[in-house]
Specification:
Belongs to the FtsB family. With 98 residues, this protein is mostly helical. The protein contains three helices and no strands. The longest helix has 37 residues.
Length: 98
């Protein structure tokens, strides 16, 4: 009877160990899930860094527009092709290759 009880405890412990190993490797919140979430966190951190950099550039642009007219004038010249009154616009074309 004592031998059967010792074997029974061993079998129960092995079954429990097997169940824990299954959950560790294949179940919910397993090691592969942890690695996938770690990759997602890294990707999201990179996206956040890119967006923070873009936001900083936009904030600097907004501050330039608030502070002075030079930034507004520069934008009007570059984006809209505007010129000041009394200025003459010259367009220089590249030489044609024969």
């Amino acid at each position: 009877m004592a031998v059967w009880r010792d074997k029974w405890i061993t079998v129960v412990l092995l079954v429990l160990l097997g169940l824990l190993q299954y959950r560790l490797w294949l179940g919910k919140h397993s090691i592969p899930d942890y690695h996938a979430l770690t990759r997602q966190v890294e990707e999201q951190s990179q996206q956040n860094a890119n967006l923070a950099q873009r936001n900083a550039l936009l904030e600097a642009d907004i501050n330039d527009l608030k502070i002075g007219l030079e930034a507004i004038e520069e934008r009007a010249r570059n984006e809209l092709g505007l010129i000041k009154e009394g200025e003459t616009f010259y367009r220089i074309l590249p030489a044609e290759a024969n």
